[in-house]
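Whiteboard transcription, Tuesday session. T.W. wrote the C-alpha cells on the left side:
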C-alpha cells in the first residue's frame, strides 16, 4: 500500500480512523512536545491499538522521523542534541565522573532511609555511593542486585540480602527472571533507584536487563527515591524505567531546568537538593 494514499489503516475506533499520514503527524507532535513516548502512551492518546502505533513508528523510522527505543520512540531532535545515550560507558569511567556530586547525593539520600527499614537498592555508581553511606547506619535490611553494593555493606551492622540470578559483567549486577521473581516475593519500605537519564517523559537506563529489575523493585516498594546528578537532566537512553509519576522523591545536586521542573511538579515528585560542596575558606575582608 502506498504510504501517501494510505487510508484508515487498522480497525481502531476514535482517532484511529484518521488516515495513517495524519496519525503519524500526531505521533510526531507528541514526540516533539515531550521528546519521548512509549508505545502504550501513544496508543492511549491517539485511541488506537499498540500494533497500529508500532507500524506507524516503523514507517517513521524508515523515513528518519523518529528514533526507536525499547517500548517507545524518541524525537530525532533529542538525538541531534546529543541527549540520547546509545552506549553504556564503562563502570569505572562512570564512577569517576562527578564522584564528589554522587557522594553528596548519596549522603542526602541516606538521611531519608527509614530506621529499621526494608530497603531496595539497585545497580549503578550512584547506588554504590549510597551503599557506602548506608554502611555507617545500622538495623537496616537491604536487598540488592548490586554485588559491589553488597560488598560495601557486608561488614556493617545491617542485614544484607544479595539477590540471585545471572551476573552481568562488568556492571556486576544480578539480572534475569530469577532476580525479578525474587523481588516480587517481597515488599520494600523504600527503593533507591539509579538512572542514566531524567526528563519530562520519565527516567531511563542503558540496560534492558537492569531496567527490568528496577521496574520490579518499583512495583513492590512503598516509596521510590531516584538518585540523579544534574548532568543527567534532559538525557534519554534505551529503556524507560518508569514515568515521573511513579517516583516519590528525586535527590539531585542542582535545580532541574524549567521543563523538567514543571513536569516534576505535575507528577507530585518532591525534589531534594544535596548539600552544596564546601569551598575553600576565604580570608575575611
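and on the right, the sequence the group agreed on:
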Amino acid at each position: 500500500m502506498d504510504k501517501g494514499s494510505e487510508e484508515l489503516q487498522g480497525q481502531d475506533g476514535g482517532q484511529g480512523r484518521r488516515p495513517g499520514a495524519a496519525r503519524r503527524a500526531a505521533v510526531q507532535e507528541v514526540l516533539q512536545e515531550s521528546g519521548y513516548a512509549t508505545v502504550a502512551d501513544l496508543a492511549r492518546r491517539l485511541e488506537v491499538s499498540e500494533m497500529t502505533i508500532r507500524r506507524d513508528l516503523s514507517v517513521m523510522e524508515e523515513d528518519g522521523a523518529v528514533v526507536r527505543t525499547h517500548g517507545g520512540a524518541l524525537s530525532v531532535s533529542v538525538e541531534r542534541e546529543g541527549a540520547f545515550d546509545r552506549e553504556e560507558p564503562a563502570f569505572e569511567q562512570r564512577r569517576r565522573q562527578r564522584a564528589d556530586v554522587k557522594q553528596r547525593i548519596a549522603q542526602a539520600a541516606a538521611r531519608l532511609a527509614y530506621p529499621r527499614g526494608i530497603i531496595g537498592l539497585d545497580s549503578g555508581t550512584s547506588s554504590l555511593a549510597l551503599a557506602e553511606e548506608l554502611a555507617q547506619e545500622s538495623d537496616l535490611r537491604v536487598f540488592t542486585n548490586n554485588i559491589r553494593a553488597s560488598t560495601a555493606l557486608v561488614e556493617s551492622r545491617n542485614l544484607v540480602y544479595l539477590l540471585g540470578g545471572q551476573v552481568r559483567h562488568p556492571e556486576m549486577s544480578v539480572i534475569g527472571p530469577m532476580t525479578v521473581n525474587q523481588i516480587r516475593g517481597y515488599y520494600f519500605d523504600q527503593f533507591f533507584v539509579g538512572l542514566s537519564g531524567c526528563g519530562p517523559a520519565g527516567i531511563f537506563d542503558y540496560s534492558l536487563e537492569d531496567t527490568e529489575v528496577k521496574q520490579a523493585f518499583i512495583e513492590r516498594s512503598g516509596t521510590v527515591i531516584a538518585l540523579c546528578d544534574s548532568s543527567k537532566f534532559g538525557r534519554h537512553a534505551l529503556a524507560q524505567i518508569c514515568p515521573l509519576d511513579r517516583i516519590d522523591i528525586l535527590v539531585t545536586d542542582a535545580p532541574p531546568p524549567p521543563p523538567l521542573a514543571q513536569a516534576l511538579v505535575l507528577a507530585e515528585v518532591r525534589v531534594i537538593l544535596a548539600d552544596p560542596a564546601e569551598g575553600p575558606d576565604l580570608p575575611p575582608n
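Someone added at the bottom: The first helix runs from residue 20 to 34.
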